[in-house]
Design goal:
Distance between the termini: 24 Å
Number of helices: 11
Shape: globular
Strand content: under 5%
Structural class: mainly alpha
Largest sheet: none
Number of strands: 0
Helix content: over 70%
Number of domains: 1
Order of helices and strands: HHHHHHHHHHH
Oligomer: single chain
Amino acid sequence: MNLLNLMQGLMSQDILQQLGGQIGAQNTEQTQNASNDIFSAMIGAMSKNTATPQGAESLNNALEKDHSANAFGNFNIMGLLGGMGGSNSSGILKHIFGNQQQQITQQISQKNGISEESTSSLMTMLAPLLMSQMGTVKQQNGMNSNDLQQYLQGEKEQIKQQNPQANNILGFLDGNGDGNIMDDLGGMLNKLF
């Protein structure tokens, strides 16, 4: 089950038009491209966050506690358009990206020709949807923390193949540019989920 494809499948033309209207996008293609980059960045960041047993367990616990398949009750994608998100979404993004969130926002904004404010708003709207879908994938496949780590690593590799331009965005997750995310994650793991 390819997570990026699953997320893309949820983004109907109607949904993209409504999201685009909320963020002031020029057209649905711009919204779709920005959404794909946001999903790619979030999946890539979660993959890096789960590279350690502690990070994988933190995500596993968060999905069980706050983002299970039933956590949103009768949640549907239209809930995004009704103002779902807020501080919960901001918390999700902080946990996923840590201190790299602003850089990721800037990169996606520049790549797609959307303001940083609009990009940030779109990220806030999409974060709970991704986490809900991750909870569903975990539940349907009976995943534990090790399974999540392997699954997300595979998803990140698929994203690199499907969306090669996402590599530039994912590169910003390595804060000091040394290519080693382990030292960069040190400060994030205690706060993760």
